[in-house]
Prior knowledge:
The complex is a heterodimer of chains A (about 750) and B (about 110). Chain A has about 750 residues and is mainly alpha-helical.
Amino acid sequence: MGVVESPGTPAALSGATTSWFAPSFLLEESKLRPPSSRPGTVRRAGLLERLHASSDASVVTVVGPPGYGKSALLGQWVEEGPRAVAWVSIEDEDNDPAVLLAYIAAALDRVKPIDVDILRTRAPPGASVAATVARRIVATMSGMAEPVALVLDHTELLHNHQCRDAIAELAVHVPSAGQLVLASRGAPPVPLARLRAQGAVVEVGAEDLAMDESEALMLLDGAGVRLGDAEVAELVRHTEGWPVGLYLAALAHKSGNGSRKGALAFSGDDRLMADYLRMELLARVPRGRVSFLTRTSVLERMCGPLCDAVVGGTHSGRLLEALEGSNLLVVPLDRRREWYRYHRLFQELLRVELGQREAAAVPQLHARAAAWCQENGLAEMAITHAQAAGDADQVARLVTACALAAYADGRLETVDRWFRWFDERDLIERYPSVAVLGAVLRAVMGQPAAAERWAAVAERGSVEATLPDGSPMESWQAQLRAFLCRHGVERMRRDAQLAEKGLAPGSQWRASALALEGLSWLLDGEAERADEILARAVDVGMDVGALPATAAALAERAIVAIGRDDWVEAEGLARRGLAIIRDGRLEDYGPGAIVHAVLARVAAHGGDVPGARESLGHAARVRPQLTYAMPALAVQTLLELARAYLALADAAGARVVMREAGAILRIRPDLGSLPREAAELRVTLETLRVGSVGASSLTAAELRLVPLLSTHLSFREIGLRLHVSRHTVKTQAISVYRKLGVSSRSEAIDRVRSIGLLA
Amino acid sequence: MKAEHEDLLRKLALNDEGVLAPLLGGGVADAEPGGLDAKTAALVRLAGIVAIGSAPASYQWIVTRALAAGASDAEVTGVLVALAPIVGCERVGSAAPEVALAIGAEFDLPLDG
């Protein structure tokens, strides 16, 4: 079979898996492995035949309630099929496009090492993610020598809009000879009507998955249970062929006193099933073991020491091994038999049981799990448990320590979820350190109102203790104030200096504190002094690995060089900035726009019109993120863009960015030399004739729409995503078409790609 | 292959300048009719389409040109106010959301769902 087996070490859990994308979160190898069939598993001959015969369908859906053997069927299909298969078992954590893409990339990489570049660039923050993610996967699949099937198991767990849209997008664009296979408890997130109309989908439903009498007989046989034909028929009728029901009935029967009545007294219903589990299955397990099972069901993944910590025992490791040996309900996650998880359905039932037996103990169990995870370097897993335990103090500590790394890794949804947890519980007030981070990250992501709200909280709070980077809270607060620059450039400088003085030597913030101080001098006309400090910002930034701040500082130095009319030096500095952005995969992050702006100016100065246009295209993609939440950098970037447009004699493009700069200046007028520069630029603009109004004059709102045009979403659906009416979307789309000089959506997509507005 | 007339209809619906210019005697794209600068000309045209109650695409087109010619958001909005006594509040009211959209306002005025 085509799946390259993973190395089988618990490297998965130390993160040392694929070198090229080295995500800062733990890549769970076991999620990339199809379930292997075990002795006694019934081969679903009829269904397999159907699946094998449908290799030309681009999409296969396997949909049925829990316990219908969806994963098992696909596992058998993978084992028997001639086709290369990339497998991902979706989990809750995958509700972040960056995480989902990382797993799909890793799965494809297992089939055949993939072209790194295709998946390197992160999807930009915002609404374009779905299409970007899907397009990169399609490109990767198309680039493979042999056709590959991508299997996504448990797609019902995807509730994030962007992830669901990405899957839908993928379904519509599966490369020829490739296949997308989705297993789900509910309707999968694909446009089924459209796929049906095209005859592109094969659908396997619960009625197909239900076992007939001969399959039931084989199942009972495999479990070592002998029943007469009539009894089997009766059992199939009662369970409606529900495989897990049949299986549990067999187990009950085997354990001796399972009365025939008991074995037949349930049907395919979750609640009855839970009762059944309690009566028939757990009743036969020794008391101590029942509580082990129910208590450890709070864990998504478990190993001996973790279970010991949670249940307070010492032999969990051996117990897990024994459980694995005795039935099918525990799944090993690595070959060393260190990590396990429960079969999903079994875990759900155990959790229900736990809730009925000792609901009050649940938070305590999570608290123990959180403590263990934290001690053992599994910080993000610890966050989940600490949240379930309701231990806000610990969540705050962990999030404060993890948020920057996760953000730098592009997992915006994950970070957002952590912050939302505090927001939803009205807990921000209690954790100023979380509020500082939340405010800065929201400012960078172009959410000014949210940034302001969190900043207000961060300012009010005081914390005695030192923060995870070893700095005092006052320094973080000063850094935030400098960043938001609400009271002018001079105040920004004082705040940046204050922050820099107090920050711990290894703090990530130091580079950006220095960069902001340098910017403040530059905006005060002290170019030389600015350059000195910016040079230090670059050194410090390289040292502590603060990439966005380093790139921005290099771009600022380039602006200083342009001021000296030293264009060669400027180009060198800006190119270094660009290299950092590329290596750090930060191309679509707001603060990186200044690098593109400077490069556009350099190119325009050198007469390289296509080069300048390309840089302006890159900058346009992130322009919607430039808001008054980081006013100095935003306005400076927009003015640099205006200069580049002017150098290209593009009055319409220059006016659009000038209007955006003007809007920010109205809210934050005290930005040193920037208001004067803006006024001068406006005067220059007056003298320029307006040529045709083209792509460069797309507004921020239109730029937000552009990525969504490349999806299958209708205008109404796009409106829902952007929180505007269908009419608004339609009108903006028409405007986009006209500015691009096209007359249809598909032409528009081609055009925006060719001018670099879309990755 | 798209039929030519389909393409033409589409472009007309979009107010595509390349198609409209020849229809209007070539004077649209770079029209600075006698004595009017580009900005004033665009604002006057805006008044015209408000008065006749044009399609949304027209608002996008004219307002974009006005902005590109250096008109401020306030000047564009000012046209609506100046027109109200002449064409009536009703007409100005229905034009307002289109103008708001065209200047790229970051808010949703009440429009049809």
